[in-house]
């Protein structure tokens, strides 16, 4: 496993944390963030949602930034309040942010995606009321699949946007240059938006980078990667460090595919 040399593309703080964790496991990783997270200013929509929080039967948090920002607002609007309704997250890392604050959180044991969350019996139980309502804490944009599925079941779904995602700007050729400089032999894209930004940032160099093994968190992002021309797509079935490490253990880097 320590023959892997990876390009990580998460937002800067998460990227640095993941690189340090991989180093402890004997895996070299280089950070080139493909997403930036910018918190939104307070607005009337946020205030209305937070004041009406007890009216929701479930709160769904889709990312770590949403958990961190949402938790801060929750503690501001409802200081000292006991847990009013169940919290749900797509992934275990997001759940830990809330659990560290003393909240009880439900998340899928396998799979960090909307499909896995929607299959949770605890979510169905929380929504087994006459007029179920769900609040989804997320960024200004994102996948609408979860909301669409819940609405098709008669659930009222509201969004609470907490941040916007921005694409960092890199000089022409910088992505390929970074991979060559460090002799990287694998790419990691932790979301569909991060993958799209990686392809756009690589620009004319993407066909060459697409020859490298690309680790992704879900079947949906895997299909997106194949459509973008990635030649070897490895679905980690989760965005966690453990999911990535398990995928690395199952695959051996091909010495003929390197940018070094």
Overview of this structure, please?
- The structure is a single chain.
- The chain is of the alpha/beta class.
- It folds into 2 domains: 5-35 and 170-250, Rossmann fold (3-Layer(aba) Sandwich); 38-165, Rossmann fold.
- Helix content is 40%, strand content 19%.
- It is built from 12 helices and 11 strands.
- The chain has helices at 12-24, 44-51, 64-77, 92-99, 114-118, 121-126, 145-152, 174-181, 192-202, 206-209, 219-227, 241-250, and strands spanning 5-8, 28-31, 36-39, 58-61, 87-89, 105-106, 133-139, 156-166, 186-188, 213-216, 232-235.
- Helix 3 packs parallel to helix 4 (92-99).
- The model has no long low-confidence stretch (mean pLDDT 91).
Question: What attributes does this structure have?
Answer:
Rossmann fold, 2 domains, alpha/beta, 260 residues, six-stranded mixed sheet, 12 helices
